[in-house]
Design brief:
single chain, 8-stranded antiparallel sheet, 17 strands, about 10% helix, disordered N terminus
C-alpha cells in the first residue's frame, strides 16, 4: 500500500487555491456589483474553476498533474478508484465493486501530484438533491474535504466557495465527459475521465438542470445533446460571443427558461428585460445584459438586438435579474 505522506504547505495551496471568479482583466470592460433577486437563480462566470476539476479512471494526470491513487477504506486498505453512473466506485484487485456512493462516507480519495500524496476525505453523500427541471431525477453530491498543515489543523471543503463547510455535499460527478474551462466547450466521449463539479459553478448547475451526459433528458432515457449542454454552459456563464469570455460575475442573478419549459422562468416580473436567446455558439441576439454594458460586449462581437421572445434553434432564453 502506498505510504501516507504529510500534507505540506505546497500541497495545501495546490488544493486550496483557485483561479479568481471574476472575468479576465480588460480596461475596456467594467463590471458592477451583482443584482439582488429573490426568485431567480445565480449564475457563474466559471465552468469548473477549482484545482481538482477532473480525474482519470486509469490514473492519467489531469492538467494540474493530479491523478487518483485510489480509495482508502476505514481500515487503511487502498482500493482501485473508479466511477460509474456518476458515483465514486471502489474496486478490489479482481475488479469487483467493494463500495460505491454513500457507502464510501468515511473513506479517503487519495490523489497525488507526483510528489505529495493528498487525502481527500469523503465526509458525506446526498443522493436526493432535487433536480431544477420538473422532469429531472435527483442528483447526488459528495462532501469532499482536506486537512491543512496549519496548527490547529483545519478541515476544509474542497470547493473554494464552501471552505468552512467541510460536511456540505458540494461536489457532483459527471462521468465520461470533460470541459474546456477557457473556451467553455464540451469535450464529449471521454470514458476514462470523471469531472468533479462544484455546486456554485456552471457544470454543477448544468447537471442540476438535467442536462448532464448521463441524465434522462427526454423521459425516454436519452440525455441532452452536446450542443444543448454547451448552450447551457454558455448561458450560465454569459459567454455572449461564444469565445469563452464571461460577461458576468459570481452570484449574479438572472432569470432563465429552456426551450422545453421544463425549467421555467419562475417569478419573472412583467417588466423584466429580455437578455438573450442562446445556442451552443453563444447568444443569438442581445437585449439587456445581466451585468455588462452592451457597448463593452460590442467590443468583442457584433450581435443583433433582440426583437422577439422566441428564436428558432435557441435552447435557452434569459432575462436580467433586477
Amino acid at each position: 500500500m502506498l505510504s501516507r505522506l504529510a500534507l505540506p504547505l505546497a500541497a495545501t495551496a495546490l488544493l486550496a487555491s483557485a483561479c479568481a471568479a471574476a472575468p479576465a482583466a480588460d480596461d475596456a470592460l467594467e463590471f458592477r456589483d451583482t443584482y439582488e433577486c429573490g426568485t431567480c437563480p445565480p449564475n457563474s462566470p466559471s465552468t469548473n474553476d477549482f484545482r481538482v476539476p477532473e480525474l482519470s479512471r486509469s490514473g492519467v494526470p489531469n492538467a494540474d498533474d493530479i491523478y487518483a491513487v485510489g480509495l482508502r477504506d476505514t481500515n487503511g486498505t487502498l482500493h482501485t478508484f473508479d466511477a460509474v453512473d456518476d458515483e465514486f466506485v471502489a474496486r478490489d484487485a479482481n475488479g469487483a465493486i467493494v463500495a460505491s456512493g454513500g457507502d464510501l462516507v468515511g473513506w479517503d480519495l487519495v490523489v497525488s501530484d507526483g510528489v505529495n500524496t493528498i487525502d481527500i476525505h469523503i465526509r458525506a453523500h446526498d443522493a436526493e438533491i432535487d433536480s431544477k427541471a420538473d422532469n429531472g431525477d435527483p442528483i447526488s453530491a459528495y462532501a469532499l474535504a482536506f486537512d491543512t498543515e496549519e496548527v490547529p489543523i483545519e478541515t476544509l471543503n474542497l470547493c473554494p466557495e464552501f471552505r468552512d463547510e467541510p460536511d456540505r455535499p458540494t461536489v457532483t460527478l459527471i462521468v465520461g465527459e470533460r470541459y474546456d474551462a477557457e473556451d467553455k466547450l464540451v469535450i464529449a466521449n471521454q470514458p476514462d475521465w470523471v469531472t468533479l463539479a462544484c455546486e456554485d459553478e456552471a457544470l454543477f448547475k448544468m447537471k442540476h438542470m438535467n442536462y448532464g451526459p448521463n441524465d434522462d433528458f427526454d423521459g425516454l432515457g436519452v440525455p441532452a445533446t452536446v450542443a444543448q449542454r454547451q448552450a447551457t454552459i454558455k448561458m450560465i456563464t454569459a459567454d455572449y460571443c461564444g469565445t469563452g469570455y464571461s460577461f458576468t460575475a459570481q452570484g449574479t442573478h438572472v432569470h432563465w427558461e429552456n426551450h422545453s419549459r421544463h425549467i421555467p422562468a419562475v417569478g419573472l416580473p412583467d417588466d423584466a428585460k429580455f437578455e438573450a436567446a442562446w445556442t451552443a455558439d453563444g447568444a443569438l441576439c442581445l437585449g439587456t445584459p445581466r451585468i455588462a454594458d452592451p457597448d463593452d460586449v460590442a467590443l468583442m462581437c457584433d450581435l443583433p438586438l433582440c426583437d422577439a421572445l422566441s428564436y428558432p434553434g435557441a435552447e435557452w432564453y434569459t432575462w436580467d435579474g433586477e
